């Protein structure tokens, strides 16, 4: 049976951005450094493979999360699933330890909508994580 959840959301004015990971992401003044944590509400990243990022990008993402910005990871692979497999800096295990949330069965645009709805409904902390990863 499919679990259904309902949230009374009358507006979706949150700013949730969608980024596609790439080799070299995070080097110098990359795209992540352009995000102002004071002006965004969340980020969804299409990660490499099973949910990995270049190490420098992982550091920049950690910095965003330290400032209260929730970050969600999906796989950019057509039939891929983002999950914590590799433990190197930028690997899914380390990203999960840092607080990145993983969406397993949605593509990036749908994961963005899921995060947008959750934030608009006021979900935070563990409740947000449970909804995103559930």
Write up what this structure looks like.
Strands 1-2-3-4 form a four-stranded parallel sheet, sandwiched between helices. The mean pLDDT is 89. The longest helix is centred in the last third of the chain and has 13 residues, at 108-120. It is α/β, with parallel strands linked by helices and 134 residues long. The chain has helices at residues 55-66, 92-98, 108-120, 125-133; strands at 16-20, 42-47, 71-75, 101-102.
List strands and helices in order, with pairings.
Elements: E1 16-20, E2 42-47, H1 55-66, E3 71-75, H2 92-98, E4 101-102, H3 108-120, H4 125-133
Parallel strand pairs: 1-2, 2-3, 3-4
Give a quick rundown of the structure:
This protein is an alpha/beta fold.
Looking at this protein, list some descriptive labels.
134 residues, alpha/beta, four-stranded parallel sheet, 31% helix, 13% strand, globular
Mean pLDDT: 89
- Strand line-up in the sheet with most strands: 1-2-3-4
Question: What is the element string, with H for helices and E for strands?
Answer: EEHEHEHH
Structural class: alpha/beta
Radius of gyration: 14 Å
The fraction of residues in strands falls at 5-15%
């Amino acid at each position: 049976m499919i679990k259904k959840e309902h949230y009374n959301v009358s507006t979706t004015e949150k700013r949730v951005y969608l980024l596609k990971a790439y080799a070299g992401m995070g080097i110098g003044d990359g795209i992540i450094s352009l995000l102002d944590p004071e002006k965004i509400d969340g980020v969804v990243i299409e990660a490499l493979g099973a949910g990995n990022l270049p190490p420098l990008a992982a550091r920049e993402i950690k910095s965003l999360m330290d400032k209260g910005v929730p970050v969600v990871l999906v796989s950019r692979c057509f039939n891929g699933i983002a999950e914590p497999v590799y433990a190197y800096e930028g690997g899914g295990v380390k990203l999960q330890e840092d607080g990145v949330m993983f969406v397993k069965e949605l593509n990036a645009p749908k994961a963005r909508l899921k995060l947008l709805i959750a934030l608009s409904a006021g979900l935070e902390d563990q409740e947000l994580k449970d909804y995103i990863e559930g």
